[in-house]
């Protein structure tokens, strides 16, 4: 990921700046996200639900989701959410239902927004009462909890669990990021804290195979951005002084 600046930097200076934002060069959990040992294709889809049951439930979930589109009425979304709630009551440890319910809750909230008369950022779900957002975050957190290995949060997971984890972490990271960009305080956390949460969730999504999230984790990392700004300012000041001395 190239860094663009408005000053002429040497090749070495550009290398330093790029390293601050390049996930390939970071000695962090983000840089280790390509470790295939995190996902074990030999594991059963879910530790507590039989593979045949998972397959049947996934088919049912697909049918639910196909009934909804971006043009669906609020009543249609609410109906599918009620059916999803029934599935969760019958299969409380089935993570896909929690993940899909989160998506449906977000669509429901978006369907209730008034048309934006200025910019898209002036009309988003974070302008709604905080209590209306809780089901969305609760469902995502539940999907994550149910998909992590019960033995250890860092233990290997199945390909099915990895899919749920990278999707749920990415969705939640996106929400944190949108709240931060809009200057919204969420659960008592301001812009900086929300950016940290977004970066952490993107890193977790990357750990389970989402390479776009891997790059987003670096872009949203407030410490990397701060270091980049410090280095750029120092280089700019050094060059200004150099030009002032006729160098």
UniProtKB/TrEMBL annotation:
Belongs to the TTC36 family. This is Uncharacterized protein. The lineage of its organism: Eukaryota, Fungi, Dikarya, Ascomycota, Pezizomycotina. PANTHER family: CDNA SEQUENCE BC021608 (PTHR21405), TETRATRICOPEPTIDE REPEAT PROTEIN 36 (PTHR21405:SF0). GO terms for biological process: tyrosine metabolic process.
């Amino acid at each position: 990921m190239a860094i663009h600046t408005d000053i002429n930097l040497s090749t070495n200076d550009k290398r330093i700046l790029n390293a601050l934002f390049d996930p390939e060069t970071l000695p962090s959990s983000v840089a280790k996200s390509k470790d295939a040992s995190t996902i074990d294709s030999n594991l059963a889809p879910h530790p507590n639900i039989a593979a045949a049951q998972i397959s049947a439930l996934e088919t049912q979930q697909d049918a639910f989701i196909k009934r909804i589109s971006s043009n669906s009425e609020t009543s249609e979304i609410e109906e599918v959410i009620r059916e999803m709630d029934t599935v969760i009551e019958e299969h409380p440890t089935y993570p896909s239902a929690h993940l899909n319910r989160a998506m449906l809750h977000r669509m429901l909230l978006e369907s209730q927004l008034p048309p934006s008369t200025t910019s898209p950022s002036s009309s988003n779900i974070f302008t709604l009462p905080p209590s209306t957002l809780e089901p969305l975050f609760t469902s995502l957190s539940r999907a994550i909890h149910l998909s992590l290995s019960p033995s250890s949060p860092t233990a290997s997971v199945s390909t099915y669990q990895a899919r749920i984890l990278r999707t749920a972490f990415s969705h939640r990271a996106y929400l944190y990021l949108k709240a931060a960009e809009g200057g919204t305080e969420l659960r008592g956390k301001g812009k900086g804290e929300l950016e940290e949460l977004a970066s952490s969730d993107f890193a977790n999504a990357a750990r389970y195979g989402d390479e776009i999230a891997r790059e987003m984790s670096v872009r949203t990392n407030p410490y990397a951005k701060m270091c980049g700004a410090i280095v750029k300012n120092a280089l700019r000041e050094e060059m200004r002084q150099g030009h002032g001395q006729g160098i």
